Amino acid sequence: MKFHRPFKALVFAALCAAVGLSQAVVTPFNSQSAFNAAVQSPGFDSFDDLVPGDPLASPTTRSAGAYAYTAAASTFGFFGAGSSADAWLSTDQFSDAIVFDGFSAGVGAIGGLFFGSDLFGELLAGQSIFLEATDADGTLTMALDNAMADSFFGFVSDGTLLSLRVSAVSSDQFNVWPTVNSLVLAGAGDPPTYPIPEPTSLALAAFGLAIGLRWRRRS
């Protein structure tokens, strides 16, 4: 899947949680073309082998091109979201996060489409998604506001990439499930020479309790 359309309303908010006295050395990208220029040998996982509406055990070992990785949901496992034409990886429980780790050698960058879906595995446009990328030097947390199904975000580390955690922000009106499509893993290339957009703050919404029914539903 190609990533043509940029975020129309992407808000970076971030908190750099350093490990010890070191600063996290992870560069964020909200442009697919800029990310591509900063990486080498990318591999993709489309998740199109998943069956929408069906559960998937956690953790699961998958591959993105030549790279292997592990995906885990915090508590209840995964849920195949999207459609038969374009399946997505999501969690079965809205409060769970998706954690990508266990990367094979050579992975220094990760990116993809990060957004929210509803109880039925359908797109919830314009939701807030949190991404936490961790390398050997620390963790960089980014808040994505107004995330859409074609919104790209990526991270490139100048060290060893260890994990990416994806979570969603629910509200008192409805629950939001973290959802990922077209995951890309790559080797880190040369550091970027252009400025990265300034972060701005994003307020957390409260987790909601809205519950619905479906032919096959998730928790």
Shape estimate = globular
- Biggest sheet overview: 9 strands, antiparallel
CATH class: Mainly Beta
Succession of helices and strands: EEHEEEEEEEEEEEEEE
Q: Can you name the CATH architecture?
A: Sandwich
The name CATH uses for the topology is Jelly Rolls
Number of spatially distinct domains = 1
Mean model confidence by pLDDT:
82
Total E-strand runs:
16
Strand content: over 45%
Give Rg in angstroms. Answer: 16 Å
In DSSP terms, counting alpha (H) and pi (I) runs of 4 or more, how many helices?
Answer: 1
Overall description:
With 219 residues, the protein is mostly beta strands. The chain has a single domain (14-188), classed as Jelly Rolls, CATH 2.60.120. The protein is 3% helix and 47% strand. The protein has one helix at residues 32-38, and strands at residues 14-18, 26-29, 39-45, 55-56, 60-64, 67-73, 78-83, 86-91, 98-101, 109-117, 123-124, 127-135, 138-147, 152-157, 161-168, 177-188. The strands form 2 sheets. Strands 2, 3, 4, 7, 8, 10, 11, 14 and 16 form a 9-stranded antiparallel sheet that branches. A hairpin with a 2-residue loop joins strand 7 (78-83) and strand 8. The radius of gyration is 16 Å and the shape is globular. Residues 1-22 and 192-216 have low confidence and may be disordered.
